[in-house]
Amino acid sequence: MSQLDEILAFNQQFVKNKAYVPYEAGGRPVKKMTIVTCMDCRLIELLPKALNIKNGDAIMLKCAGGMIESPYSSTMKSILVSLYELGSEAVYVIGHTNCGMHGLESAKMIQDIKNRGIDDDAFSAVREQGVDPYEWLGGFQSVDDQVQKSVSIVKNHPLLPEETPVYGLVIDPKTGELRLAK
After folding, report:
1. Is residue 133 part of a domain?
2. Is residue 20 part of a domain?
């Protein structure tokens, strides 16, 4: 049985047994907060527990490194939707220690991509779109600096509602300890 078949079989039982009932929630965040964080698999359950949030409490956006790289990225668009359309009132950018994006060298990732069969023509197509793969696929050298950079992009966005608090935090993916980004 494939992984997809296992997921679908489990899901049929999940729905049949009404296992979703404990997770029922409205579409607006009860705690009126939007969280931008890393996609790291260690944070799936740990981060909500460490923040004392449950299903329905917050909007959670996840991407590599929790990085907001541009004021016009899909992540920033999602933040604005959460603030204007879903009732969020604060933004929390939460990076984490021991992140895979910390120290990620774009040259290594490009080589890993090529090793999986992607050829130079594909990279040429990326460059034709005005994107430098070496810049785009790079990581960061300091989680604190990256969180602060992301916070700055949000705070300085021309469409951010005035008086919206934007916080930068770092979580330890082992213990769940939170601290303010330095």
Report:
1. no
2. no
